């Protein structure tokens, strides 16, 4: 089991997938999610890239020190992991909280990011985002881990997907519970969400950037992705029709095709 003991005081679980000599793609996951949720992407990306997935502090098989956590703290973890693995620069892809981490990393360490992908992400926790992310904290505090994942599932996928794929939705829920974050780690990650604010620094992103969001994302609706795309130079926005917050799991074929095509175009330029 590959675990990196880092100078930031945490041990992060990680996995490599794909061709050993391919350009590295680093995937950063969101609140309460371990790196395995990237596997629908890794299955396609690994034919062209060397793919790194890992569990953030507070999730999966990584350590979960007492919180609260901050996005800059989790950026430092990611940079320490890249240093540990000898990755000088990479294609960086972040989802939700992983998008917040990736955005901050691209601003603070531009030399480490060749291209940037932000999926279901946001620039600043305000308005609807603050209400939703605060509600996640109440789900956890008042209902515990099982209730948290059960309640959150209704925000992660649209009603038609949950209805037409009910058995699959229950399987996803059980996998979420089986790979759940410890309650202290999940609470720390929620705190990191609530203090995220890069709205005044978006213009500092230097990497070519793809911003994607599901049309029906109930966690962080398209409004927030448009804020990102409007503020980041050389960015492209894709809104997936009928898509959810977890569109990469809802329709991995479409998600992978769009993101891989974008990455191929950026590598050619």
Task: Tell me about this structure.
This protein is of the alpha/beta class and 269 residues long. It has a single domain, classed as 3-Layer(aba) Sandwich (Rossmann fold), CATH 3.40.50.1820. Helix content is 46%, strand content 17%. It has an eight-stranded mixed sheet with strand order 1-2-4-3-5-6-7-8, with helices on both faces. Helix 3 links the parallel strand 5 (90-95) and strand 6. Helix 1 crosses helix 10, helix 4 (128-156) crosses helix 6 and helix 4 crosses helix 7.
In summary, what is this structure?
The chain is an alpha/beta fold and 269 residues long. The protein is built from 10 helices and 8 strands.
**CATH hierarchy, class:** Alpha Beta
**Number of structural units classed as domains:** 1
List the strand order in the largest sheet. Answer: 1-2-4-3-5-6-7-8
Secondary-structure element series: EEEHEHEHEHHHHEHEHH
CATH level-3 fold name: Rossmann fold
Architecture in CATH?
Answer: 3-Layer(aba) Sandwich
Spatial shape: globular
N-to-C span: 38 Å
Average pLDDT, to the nearest integer?
Answer: 95
Radius of gyration: 17 Å
Q: Please name the fourth-level CATH homologous superfamily.
A: Alpha/Beta hydrolase fold, catalytic domain
Low-confidence stretches: none
Q: Helical amount among residues, as a percent range? A: 40-55%
Range of strand content: 15-25%
Number of helices: 10
The main pleated sheet reads as:
8 strands, mixed
Q: Determine the structural class based on helices, strands and strand pairing.
A: alpha/beta
Count of DSSP E strands? 8
